[in-house]
Amino acid sequence: xxxxxxxxxxxxxxxxxxxxxxxxxxxxxxxxxxxxxxxxxxxxxxxxxxxxxxxxxxxxxxxxxxxxxxxxxxxxxxxxxxxxxxxxxxxxxxxxxxxxxxxxxxxxxxxxxxxxxxxxxxxxxxxxxxxxxxxxxxxxxxxxxxxxxxxxxxxxxxxxxxxxxxxxxxxxxxxxxxxxxxxxxxxxxxxxxxxxxxxxxxxxxxxxxxxxxxxxxxxxxxxxxxxxxxxxxxxxxxxxxxxxxxxxxxxxxxxxxxxxxxxxxxxxx
Length: 269
Description:
The protein is globular and about 75 Å long. The longest helix has about 35 residues. Helix content is about 80%, strand content about 0%. The protein is an all-alpha fold and about 270 residues long. It starts with a helix and ends in an 8-residue tail after the last helix. Helix 8 runs antiparallel to helix 10.
């Protein structure tokens, strides 16, 4: 009831200030608004998020496995990288990359802002994913590792064939949450001119003079993308859990009981 009362008050205030007038929302029925601003900005957001998520997962896998290495120097280096880049704000990483790449001409000027966004998102999210991966692997029962060692598997084989497949299901919700964070953090590229959906929405609003409707539309676009990503994660997690249950061996006691029940003429209580 309180939330409904607050929502009604907000709607009344917006209506009194003319923010709900049809002319404020009519630009979104014009194709040029979408093709000129919103869709290119949406493509920039998705492109930066997709590339950075892929690279972050690769980096996170290397750092996460490296933190569990048998070699102490590997654990120290990977741990240092993870702790440093987890502690630095993403925006600072982006600005650092932007000026570094510009000074030494690492990338073409047309791709400078994109490279800075991907660099910042990759280092930060890769460090977080490394910790997620390490926690997921450590959550696997120790008996799995001991069983793998008892049949002579090397540590790399044990990690690839035994631990990682079981840890993926446990890690999936946290990984998807980190992907959503990467998608939203791509909007930080607005600070140095990267064309993404928030910047495009604000540019569109400055042209049409409808800032609040533009930001509402941008928010709805981001909500729709994140909801689709979360729904896909839930579907994928369910598939993985069902697949793992089908491949698990039946309990011997349950199998014996089932066999006894199927014996003809057996007296049952």
